[in-house]
Amino acid sequence: MMTKERFQELLKPIADGLFGKQRTRYGEAPHYTVRPVGMIVEDLCRIPEDEWARYAFSREPLNGKFTDEQRLDLTRQAIACGREYAEKLAAQYSMRDPEKLAKQLGLNVDYPDMPQNAERVLFAEFREPNNIHIYMDGVRKGRALLSEPGVSHALTGQLDIAKLLLGHELFHFVEEKYKKEIWTRTYKIELWAPTPLHNRSGVAVLGEIAAMSFAKALTGIPYSPYVMDAFLVYGYSPEAASGLYEEMMEKTGRTPRLPEAADTDAAPEALPK
Q: What does the domain layout of the chain look like in residue ranges?
């Protein structure tokens, strides 16, 4: 049984992954300067959707096979794929609400407090063939943070945390349903193999990027759902979330702010690319 204590233990090393898909780095945990959550989400919400490419691909096992230019191009295609399927579903069922769409698609959605057992931090997950779990302990902690200075303004009134998580996992069901035709599954990279053999592989992170775009399109939030990586972790560990913030800012070419800069209105400068 996953307990809150075990959840905290998994967060001692910095969370390493997409929301709902975190892993942890083992060994001695580094220490990070804790930032106010309002400053974190304010800065992260300013990052354009496609500029999350390097952060997203840093979780991809085949990351070293790509150049930055290729990562950006694939990210843009994955974003377009997620948006395309969101619009298809919205048009087909005349609705955009993830809960109603899940019901129309025959999914079983439940809202347990914590995962039963997990070796990584989980806020939501899709389990084949048609089950989605939204873990409410993290959702409640996220909702509590909405009252912190600057948070609700940055995240906007359009954010419903549970529905955003559901939208993300809903894409994974859609991706499986249309696996023979959806771009995130049909795209393959050629790995090394002796001629004339072929060794082609899918790229897992493309499905995650598309799921983020899909959830964004359905819910109408104006920023990338990757912001939730740091925001939801903050409810359990402000230090781990601050470490994620540093990484996200650096991988998107920006300088992380320090807490004493939280009261300034200036946005962080983007680094030259």
A: 4-259
